[in-house]
Amino acid sequence: MSAPEDPAGLEKKLRALTPKRPSEALREQVLRQAKAALGRPVTPLERFWASWSFRWGWALGLAAMLVIGALSERSFQSGHWGEGAAGAVAAGPAASGAQRRDAELRAVLRIETDLDPSDTAAFGWGDPNRCDRYQALVLAAGADAGPRPDRALPRDTSHPLDEADRRHS
Amino acid sequence: MMPDPEVNTRSETPSRPDPEEVLRDRRRLRRLALGETAALEELYDLHAKRLFGLALWLTRRSEDAEEVVQTVMVKLAGRGQELLSIRMPAAYLVSMARRESLDIVTRRGSHREEPWDESLFEESRYRRDGASPQDAVPVLPPEDAIAVETAMSALPPEQREVVYLHVYEGWSFREIGEAIDVPTFTAASRYRLALERLREQLGEDAKEIR
């Protein structure tokens, strides 16, 4: 016989052959046995537990919990656990990321009333960017936020929040 | 008459598993889980050929291949709730058939000296192009078919199964890898090695004939 020169030629030779197939008698025999071995039908509840929609629902629920948990982290540290997440949720699904964060901070800080300067460390006090955001929030809430924070100030020195407190007191 | 190499291919289209077929198979498994015997018949009709072929190529005995198909279908029917979580039914069945076949081969280990004379291919190596039986033409000269079969049976089982699934079932190496639990690269590599060995073997046969 001629030796195939290339893999394609050899493949062609292989494809020219038809692999053996099972007999019709086997079909009858196998189906009879398999039908006899058929387990009890799955109940609707079992079907629900095993369904992909349930699994996806479970996975999405878990993901939602993680997101809410992450949003709540800072409020948890500040002693106002859950309020941040509630604020973010209250901002609505159409809110942008910044709007959600604002809503979260508003809810957590409760700017107008019981502002506790010592808690603000948990919100990144001393971080110039957050400092600006905090000040903007204070202003938006109608409170007197005091002078713009000095970005060069170290964390432990007086900051606008202290000043605001002093002014209020 | 020598066959035209261009038309000298299998008339059957390889049954490549497509996403829609996978979904349909999942539905059949769901129906089977609910106790529908018609789903069992459909699954058999769709997969038995592949399972039998693979089992035959691994065990090299018709009786063993039939036993494998029966065991796989019986086990499948008894899986109950597990049927609902099968994502790739064809790969799952191939994996089961493969495991059963290798179990049989292992059990038979002590009887390796038994001669093996099972044909991997259908006896009739003819393809009918026309309406009348007179139009039947051989798709491969008999001596070539015998040489291919001899060379194929000399391959190690792990190469044979890849050749079978790729050439006769049209599966990609990724699909084969998933079914036999090896990386895609390994499946492709086994196929390449198998073709090299076949080519060597067939080349030697050609020299002997000359």
Q: What do the pLDDT scores of chain A average to? A: 65
Largest sheet of chain B: 2 strands, antiparallel
Structural class of chain A: mainly alpha
Q: What level of helicity do the residues of chain A show?
A: 55-70%
Uncertain runs of chain A = 1-5, 143-157
Structural class of chain B: mainly alpha
Main features:
heterodimer, A: 169 residues, mainly alpha, 8 helices, 58% helix, elongated, disordered N terminus, B: 210 residues, two-stranded antiparallel ribbon, 3% strand
Task: Describe this structure as you would to a colleague.
The complex is a heterodimer of chains A (about 170) and B (about 210). The radius of gyration of chain A is 34 Å and the shape is elongated. Chain A has helices spanning about 5-15, 25-35, 45-50, 50-75, 85-90, 95-110, 130-140, 160-169. Chain A is mostly helical. In chain A, helix 4 packs across helix 5 and helix 5 (about 85-90) crosses helix 6 (about 95-110). Chain B is mainly alpha-helical. Chain B has one domain (about 5-210). Chain B is about 60% helix and about 5% strand. Chain B has helices spanning about 20-35, 35-60, 60-75, 90-105, 140-155, 155-170, 175-180, 185-210, and strands spanning about 125-130, 135-140. Chain B has a two-stranded antiparallel ribbon. The longest helix of chain B has 26 residues, at about 185-210. Mean pLDDT of chain B is about 80; it is low at about 1-15 and about 130. Chains A and B meet through helix 1, helix 2 and helix 3 of A and helix 1, helix 2, helix 3, helix 5 and helix 6 of B.
